[in-house]
Amino acid sequence: MELPVASTYNWTGLYLGAHVGGGSSKVDWEYTVGGTADHDGSGALGGVQAGYNFQSGNIVYGVEADISAAHIDGSTACPNAAFSCDSDVKMLGSLRGRIGYAMDRLLIYGTGGLGFGTVEISTSGPIGTNGTSKTRAGWTLGGPGICLYRSLVAQGRIQIFPIWARAIILSTPA
Q1: Is the model more confident about 32 or about 165?
Q2: Which pairing describes strands 152-154 and 128-142: parallel, antiparallel, or unpaired?
Q3: Is 171's pLDDT higher than 70?
Q4: In angstroms, rounded to a whole number, what is the distance separating the alpha carbons of residues 105 and 60?
Q5: N vs C: which end of the chain shows fewer Cβ within 10 Å?
Q6: 126: preceding bond cis by omega (within 30 degrees)
């Protein structure tokens, strides 16, 4: 199979955009006095992104930043079943490099860099709610994209954010 020698579409330049999508979370919750309240969450997110691409032949490289408001929540019974252990991812963002191969309006790329997010963790029960908000940074990976027409780009992307928010709430009985 021969790959095209040169892309006729030029990916060089600044771009701005908006995005919507869904997400999932996996929370590993450990109590210092023993017991766990691990659970999964799911929900929606939406935000904006901006980036700049450079193209040399069929190789496209650049940088991209994005920020998303999110509501990716989950809960389970705490070790003391009178309480609920809850989590809610409120924000996700990233600053990434990317590199790809352009075949006219199709760009297959990989992306990776700094990922960050805010997670609210809490317990609730008969004596009220106790919680905290944690912002953590880590890495993120994702890809690919396709250009539909001129500057209108639709991206199908899976992005992984392994951001850890360890919940240790001592005031809630285990």
Answers
A1: 32
A2: unpaired
A3: no
A4: 12
A5: N
A6: no
